């Protein structure tokens, strides 16, 4: 009976491998090994990592690109490090990761101070709401505010999330062409917030 039970167990384990049934260990190990945007070897290597929305295209913003952006190449103490374009998902807008190591973004600072500096540097911002949140397991500060686009003659919502790392401050920002596009892209922001963690 002992040999038979071992044989049966061996058969069950073999079948589980073939069928994809993991009994609670293989799947978790695979998930833990999956790379997130921000990890080494991904489109953007960052102090943080997160799961991007499917089909959004991530592009690393090198120093040369940032220099060509002129005034758009910085906001408060931060510069853009990675841009995720929502075009392939049918939306017009970007999720942008900003990073920095000076001023309010210096290591050892607070995410609230960083967020206040980031939002204050936004042109024509108003209706600012700042609150303490958890992003993944990290302490963070989230801001919701509106920006008046004088050229388009409209007011559009913006959302941003700030965290501090040993390598400096990071802000994940969601804009959008207009209020409708911003609302449609919010799930991408929430996914980044939910899956956020520090890279090793």
Question: Could you characterize the architecture of this molecule?
Answer:
With 200 residues, this protein is of the alpha+beta class. The strands form two sheets. A seven-stranded antiparallel sheet has the order 2-3-4-8-7-6-5, with helices on both faces. A two-stranded antiparallel ribbon has the order 1-9. It is built from five helices and nine strands. A hairpin with a 4-residue loop joins strand 6 and strand 7 (154-165). The protein starts with a helix and ends with a strand. It folds into two domains: 1-33, no CATH class; 35-198, Mog1/PsbP, alpha/beta/alpha sandwich (Protein Transport Mog1p, Chain A, 3-Layer(aba) Sandwich), CATH 3.40.1000.
Summarize the structure.
Helix content is 30%, strand content 32%.
Walk across the major sheet and give the strand order. Answer: 2-3-4-8-7-6-5
Count of DSSP helices?
5
* Strand-residue proportion: 25-35%
Number of domains: 2
Radius of gyration: 21 Å
Mean pLDDT: 86
